[in-house]
Amino acid sequence: MSFKPHFRALLGSSALVAASALPGFATELHILHFNDFHSRIEPISRYNSTCSAEDDAEGKCFGGAARLYTLVTQMRSAIEAEGGNVLVLDAGDASQGSLFYTTYGGQAEADLLERIGLDAMAVGNHEFDLGPDGLAVFLDTVSFPILSSNLDVSGAEQLAGRVAPYTIVEEGDMRIGIVSALATDTVETSSPGPTVLFEDEIEALTAAVAELQEQGAAPIIALTHVGYRMDQEIAAAVPGLAAVVGGHSHTFLSASDPSRQGPYPTWVDTEAGSMVPVVTAGAFGKYLGHLVLELDDEMNVVYASGDAITINSEVEPDAEVLEWVASLAGPIDEMRNQPVAETSAMIEGDRAVCRQMECSMGTLVADAMLARTADQGVTIAIQNGGGLRASIDEGMVTMGEVYTVLPFQNTLATFQLTGADVVAALENGVSQLEDGAGRFAQVAGLHYTFDPAAEAGSRVSDVMVQSGDEWVPIDPAATYGVVTNDYMRNGGDGYAIFRDSGMNAYDFGPDLADVLAAYLQENAPYEPYTDGRITRLGE
Fold first, then answer.
1. 91 in Cβ contact with 34 (< 8 Å)
2. Is the pLDDT at 18 greater than 60, yes or no?
């Protein structure tokens, strides 16, 4: 199959696109995919926050609904025009991350996906940020199947019978099976509630694949929202998969970009002796993945190629979608364009940093939390790195940027905790470093050291608290005043110890975004910094 020069330039020279299926191969299947859009309805900057109109006009922006729509639509049409087979898949987490989600509760994202016209979508953990009602918005809006093989939603009235374990897509001579799985720790990272039950990902997918095989489906694609590491485990352990198309960890795989976090596709050896390609396409609508599977007569994968395409200014935004975006943006423009304060340098909020070590955004947010509650006897602030969703570039900070960093509408929560429980909480924070989990603890009023090479549960050492002008070892038996956000205080991101052991808790403080904005104003012009409050050994 050949593409027009425009698409060849976007794909890069490493993407292999043949005039037809390669010699000896029966069928070629193209999969266009994206994941973790996170409500980036408007174009984003290189820091993943909303890009200014001026920078967009200068070609400095990426993604946005109108560009994503253009590229998917044009590539799908080009493939189909030359007789090719194509699927368009979303690996979950369309929800949460900008004022469009805060304002419209998922409706804008659902409307966009319906415009694009997917073949299937995986349930992401953030589709549950507004509880089962949040996922119901998508189910009420879209005509394509929304999948999760390891969810039991029969007890949730809004969802019962509406989330399928799998689907079969008729494409050319193929009956393509699509199965899905959602990370089981969603009960800690979002708000599915007690009526949504989770099964083991690998066990559920294995059963779903077997059912599809009984129905004659082939090839079978796993469309998952479990993260890159777990995707590879699934590829190795679940028999009968042709490919895994994933999301959740925001991993950027590429066949051509040296900044990649892994190869596109990533080949995984299976327990049966075959190999399965795994792909995922970054996040925030910045990339569109294009996987090409070459299949034999039995629909087995004999070759796979492709790349993640950067959705930059070379992609012309669709005019109709641009008009739609503008209509949605109108009601929120005045508030988000409100200036807050100047910053003298970029404030680092990238997840690759803030979920692994001290970052300047984590320092800023924790400092702001502690400053707001210090007169209440609070001496320790703990903020999850996963709650920080973007960086802020140098110059004027707007309220819209603040809400992009802190989009969850979390409120300050204060309570008391023993020193021993504080240390246990820090252990939770570094317990899933390998997965880039959002529970990593950014702090104020604390210093701590951790060893990523040590066994989880025994990684933290040298925890110090401030006493006057000095830093002293934390006293396991002493009681300390702590501030966090209400999500963590109620057990989110594995912080069950806050929920179960916190004393004199109060979860209804001001919105964390408002706290941050006020702190920036009080400390303007703000100078970002880190000061060594978190030490990562082995660096």
1. yes
2. no
Q: State pLDDT tens for residues 241-276.
A: 999 999 999 999 999 999 999 999 999 999 888 999
**pLDDT score recorded for residue 75:** 98
Supply 4's token pair.
Answer: 């027009």
Alpha-carbon distances of 264 from 223, 303, 527, rounded to whole Å: 16, 13, 38
pLDDT the model gives residue 15: 35
Strands 339-343 and 287-295: unpaired
Q: Which two tokens stand for residue 59?
A: 């070609």
Residue pair 438/355 in contact by the 8 Å Cβ criterion: yes
For 99-125, write each residue's pLDDT tens digit: 899 899 999 999 999 999 999 999 999
Q: How confident is the model at residue 80, as a pLDDT?
A: 96
Q: How far is CA 393 from CA 61, 113, 186, 527, in A?
A: 13, 29, 31, 12
The DSSP H or E segment spanning 74 is: helix 65-81
Q: What mean pLDDT is predicted for residues 360-368?
A: 98
3-state helix, strand, coil in the chain (%, to 5): 30, 30, 40
What residue type is 265 in one-letter code? P
20: DSSP letter: S
For residues 340-367, average pLDDT: 97
Characterize 487-506 residue by residue with b for buried, 16 or more Cβ atoms within 10 angstroms of its Cβ, and e for exposed: bbbbbbbbbebbeeebeebb
Answer yes or no: are the C-beta atoms of 441 and 484 closer than 8 Å. no
Query: How far apart are alpha carbons 1 and 80 in whole angstroms?
Result: 10
Which class for 526: exposed (0-12), middle (13-18), buried (19 or more C-beta within 10 A)?
buried
Torsion of CA 44, 45, 49, 50, to 10 degrees: -60
449 CB burial (10 A radius; 0-12, 13-18, 19+) = middle
CA 239 to chain centroid: 27
Long-range pairs, 275-278, Cβ under 8 A, ≥24: 276/235, 276/236, 276/241, 276/242, 276/243, 276/244, 276/301, 277/235, 277/243, 277/244, 277/301, 277/304, 278/228, 278/231, 278/232, 278/235, 278/243, 278/244, 278/246
The residue type at 173 = D
Q: What does residue 294 show for φ and ψ, rounded to 5 degrees? A: -100, 125
Domains, the chain, with CATH or none? 5-19+32-326 (3.60.21.10), 339-536 (3.90.780.10)
DSSP-assigned beta bridge partners for residue 116? none
